[in-house]
Specification:
Chain lengths: 481, 481
């Protein structure tokens, strides 16, 4: 059999397997599987992707190509644009310019210090680990050409075919700087080749063999998804809390009505002024409210949002994820909702659900909620770095107080709707929630995103405390800017 | 009882009713209800919205304020930004600058002719009719002040409270041009007050009464949603087709393999060149593929997409809508996917599903699919106007041909996945689909977005036809530009 015929036969068999795996992946709503395609400009990154558009079902393919961040992207956390454009489950994503692209370019051009490059690679590793832990498949390919080939490649025939596609535009790197890029790439590979997402070097001098090899790697990656066989990170970094913060609170704190009214007016005016401060628009504000049912989150939030221009404000009530959201990494729906500069976002319940309700109710594995502390800290650190002030509140009531509020709600016809069977069921797990709350505060209270645990038996007291804390935090922040 | 006490009592009762209705709306996933708040700058548009943020559950509120279109918005159909930012079902949407804002400003400043203003108002009426027909509630409010009040308003106390919020920024119109605005607004109200979405004038000299009145209107609108009592447009504009286009085709059309190969190379090269033409990037391309199962849509699409840079391409496979999509106007998911300038979008099945599968399977009411022809024509006309070339294909096979393809698929292990029970069931309704197809072509073939019905017994023939038509259409278009 001629070499050509053998290649054709292999290709046809592979193609059928790939189509079937693609169909199964789609049906099972698993993945997505992401292919990061990097390498020498002449190694055929573009052709490779064309090949797969030819082989596969185009409906379940996504291609992403990121160049320099544009517009608001420059003011958001660096990984934001990758998070929000993650392809949906059941599909494949090809990345021509991935999250490695900018750091690699900048390192090879000497625009990034080794130290910063290392820090960015560590950030990327945490990002990738989180994706993989959440069921995303990752295939990181470096298309490699020997030096002999970089001069003559692509062969004449290929050249002709792709010339008209303005191949130059595909180039990540100019040929002249390629030796510097190669050095940078070696460093990148060293720093980010983990067991779960290694860089794979694909010899690319023979396009047919290159495409076949990548096809086989892709098939394997899809099969791993389907069989649930892929390696998952197992590192967890947390410690159980040793004391009960909720037991330490003074639940008798209260404000008289006239004091409340005076303080409310005072802090609301202060908050209005702070939000109008020109420096505020450079950053943004994220308020997180957690606490037991009937702790008074809604009322407290309203006292704050009343001071805010509705155009810059968004209050998100976090509920059980939709089916679509459930098939995505759990932080994604929060990444999608972080505030742009000058904006305020309030989460009425939040991503902390992972270490609260999801932990207590067993909606996620023990491994995953134990890993979530570090993931959430990382998320908030990225927000902080990009200029978002994160302030977190826990409104604390006693089980007795909750009971009397539930009973009051039951008696008030117009408030009965607020009470569901679930609320009563949750009460039975009160000690579990207390435990989860303490572990949460222990592991996620940071200097830049502290927890404020407020006794909320007296609603007036709780509201004023929250308002005061928001004002004081903003004041401090604006002074620094 | 003092006036103040009476207002307070009314407010409290209204507030409870509103909260309950809001909860029910959210639970039933109905709506959204949109409140368009327009009127005199001093009439308290902002305060009104603040009031509702104070009264209602903030989690289910959205505020939108549109000023001049920004960036890519300027190159997309005018209504695109309103479509894509429609609040989700179960929520309320407040609009400070709605789709009326720009035309109103431009008319009052003499920047828009009466004729164009009228055309824009007609476009808006069609848009609103479609929203209402799809279950969206619309409340269009004009906050009105007597001339006496425009001088003195807002009263001192209010002024003080809102001054710090930079009230001026809320202003849609400067006070000096208000008489011109009022004239324009009268014209607007005349042209766009239909029975289903009338403009309601709200006297606003007394803020308490204003808020109470709007609260009651809002409550009524929510109750109409909940009771399914709102008026719906009942106009339908279509005619049944009188002849069978599918019976007229020559299903024997075929190409020999060598001719096919030559033509394929020819047209693919031509398409590559056309897409690279600098003028192409000014507009965009939308390809719609419809046809029976196994008609060869996927293979034809791949022959076209192979010529396209994956970065500018998106192929959407249209399937049954998700639960979330089902709660939204049916065209929304397609509005969200229209191509930006320089881009190509391919729909493998499309919004025509409404007048095909949804009609045949009874997934939508007779009234709604009969109204869909005009809605779709309107959608495509807006795309055309904004520079998107729409090309629509029906790949036609006979039921016998389909049967033999199904049987072939059953015999090929790796193609069996393509065949589902649903495919077999659909076959039983062949005459209904033929009927629906003919009505569709009869009612939606337009000069700027024609249907191309291609006999596809011979796959080669069909692929070349489709490629040729895309090339010729683009060629013609680029020559004109």
């Amino acid at each position: 059999m001629s070499k050509e015929k053998s290649v054709k036969k292999q290709r046809e068999a592979l193609c059928e397997d790939l189509l079937e795996a693609q169909f199964e992946l789609q049906k099972a709503n698993l993945g997505p599987v992401l292919l990061l395609v990097s390498g020498n400009d002449l190694a055929g990154k573009a052709e490779l992707i064309y090949t797969f558009y030819d082989w596969l079902d185009n409906r379940y393919l996504n291609t992403r190509a990121f160049t320099l961040p544009q517009g608001v992207e420059r003011k958001m956390p660096r990984l934001w644009r990758y998070w929000r454009s993650l392809p949906p489950a059941g599909t494949l994503g090809f990345y021509l310019g991935s999250w490695y692209h900018q750091p690699l370019i900048r390192l090879s051009r000497g625009q990034l210090s080794e130290k910063h490059f290392t820090a960015e690679m560590a950030q990327i590793t945490r990002f990738e680990n989180q994706l993989v832990a959440e069921g995303v498949g990752l295939l990181k390919l470096w298309l490699h050409l020997d030096d002999d080939h970089t001069q003559n490649y692509p062969p004449h025939q290929q050249q002709q075919q792709y010339d008209s596609l303005a191949m130059r535009e595909w180039g990540e790197f100019s040929t002249t700087e390629y030796s510097a890029v190669r050095q940078a790439a070696d460093r990148m590979s060293e720093l980010t080749s983990s067991a779960i997402a290694p860089w794979i070097r694909v010899p690319s001098s023979d396009p047919d063999q290159r495409d076949l090899q990548v096809g086989r790697l892709l098939l394997q990656a899809m099969e791993h998804q389907l069989q649930g066989k892929g390696l998952r990170p197992d590192q967890r970094d947390w410690q159980p809390s040793k004391h009960d913060r909720l037991a330490e609170l003074d639940y008798d704190c209260a404000l008289k009505k006239d004091v409340y009214k005076r303080e409310l007016a005072h802090y609301q005016q202060q908050l209005r002024d702070l939000i109008r401060h020109p420096a505020f628009a450079k950053g943004s504000l994220l308020l997180v409210f957690e606490g037991a049912d009937a702790a008074g989150k809604g009322g407290t939030i309203r006292r704050i949002t009343r001071c805010l221009d509705p155009r810059i404000l968004r209050v998100h009530g976090t509920r059980a994820p939709t089916d679509e959201e459930r098939s995505q990494p759990y932080l994604l729906r929060f990444w999608r909702r972080i505030p742009a500069p000058g904006r305020v976002v309030v989460f009425d319940r939040s991503y902390y659900g992972r270490v609260l309700v999801e932990r207590v109710e067993g909606f996620c594995s023990e491994l995953r909620w134990q890993q979530a502390y570090a993931e959430i800290n990382d998320f908030e650190a990225q927000l902080h770095k990009a200029g978002t002030q994160v302030i977190k509140f826990w409104l604390a009531i006693t089980p007795q107080e909750q009971l009397s509020r539930f009973e009051a709600r039951e008696k008030t016809p117009t408030k009965r709707y607020k009470l569901t069977d679930e609320d009563w069921r949750n009460r039975e797990k009160w000690p579990d929630y207390v435990n989860a709350m303490n572990d949460m505060v222990e592991n996620t209270a940071t200097a830049h995103a502290p927890w404020h645990v407020i006794p909320a038996t007296d609603k007036r007291y709780a509201r004023i405390q929250a308002l005061r804390i928001v004002c004081e935090t903003l004041q401090k922040r604006l002074k620094q800017s």
